[in-house]
Amino acid sequence: MNRNWGYVLLAGLVEIIWVMGLKHSATIWEWLGTLAAIAASFYLIIEAAKRLPVGTVYAVFTGIGTAGTVASEMLFFGEPFKLVKVLLICVLLAGVIGLKLVTADHAEPEVSK
């Protein structure tokens, strides 16, 4: 996995944090942390999209965020476990992994300013 896909993975993981922050933040410091996570996530996804296909990057990013948020809510915040929900998340992840596998790993030249 090259650095650009690492950015996508990290951005997706940070997305899980800020999405949960939108629901669970109660103090000014928690809201500031949520805003910082949003900024970091979008910075990473923008950097990855400069060198990889935007559609695939966005699909992988949102897939990681969706699956991670659903799993985190069930594991840490008492969301009821439903088998059908887990199976659908597995289908989503299979699609995301499939997109990653059929997308070229070579980075495109960086856009100069």
Structure explained in plain terms:
The structure is a single chain. The protein has one domain. The protein contains 4 helices and no strands. It is 77% helix and 0% strand. Helix 1 runs antiparallel to helix 2, helix 1 packs across helix 3 and helix 3 packs antiparallel against helix 4. It is mainly α and 113 residues long. The mean pLDDT is 88. The two termini are 27 Å apart.
Multimeric state = single chain
> Termini, distance in Å?
27 Å
Arithmetic mean pLDDT: 88
Q: What is the total domain count?
A: 1
Question: What features would you highlight for this structure?
Answer:
113 residues; mainly alpha; 4 helices; 0% strand
Task: Furnish the topology, listing elements before pairings.
Layout: H1 3-24, H2 28-49, H3 54-76, H4 83-102
Helix pairs in contact: 1-2, 1-3, 3-4
Short synopsis of the structure:
This protein has four helices and no strands. It has helices spanning 3-24, 28-49, 54-76, 83-102. It is flat and about 40 Å long.
